[in-house]
């Protein structure tokens, strides 16, 4: 059977990865193999640019993603093929040399800031979720994450949030709500979403 394809969209630090991991764990505990894909892994390769130039790229704009490669890999996984998927280095702002061997699970979860922006991706999806978390909370989480794990300064995080994240949120990210099957507030609705997916999917009979 064709794997069931779930998309989770939302602004950076809204809780998408946490939600995807929660669902993967819940279904995994019931014997369902789950493939998780981060859209961030499909940022375009800007290795030809200097580090300073790469650091100034607007990574919240749709043009920063190689959506064709992502679409191709999703289609391959839905055919049951095994792949080596890219990884992204957030500190160096470019793809890593290493790749991750991945095989198609019965459930494929794609999470990222803009997956529902691309018609080719959202038309493949069996179910589409938008995680709607207050921007103030997203900024607080992003500040902590980027300083602790991505080598950023508070000033650089603040500038990027104000100059890139907020404008792109209004222009591209927030409108994805209208392409979603359900809008999920951050936090306690994870069990409810699990139940909804379990009931909707013919694969998820756990």
UniProtKB/TrEMBL annotation:
Superkingdom as given in the UniProt entry: Bacteria
Keywords attached to this entry: Kinase, Nucleotide-binding, Transferase
Ranges where the Phosphoribulokinase/uridine kinase domain occurs: 8-186
Signal peptide annotation: none
Pfam families: PRK
Xref: InterPro entries: P-loop_NTPase (IPR027417), PRK/URK (IPR006083), Uridine_kinase-like (IPR000764)
Pathway: Pyrimidine metabolism; UMP biosynthesis via salvage pathway; UMP from uridine: step 1/1
EC number: 2.7.1.48
GO MF assignments: ATP binding; uridine kinase activity
Keyword field contains Transferase: yes
Record-given protein name: uridine/cytidine kinase
Source lineage: Bacteria, Pseudomonadati, Pseudomonadota, Gammaproteobacteria, Cellvibrionales
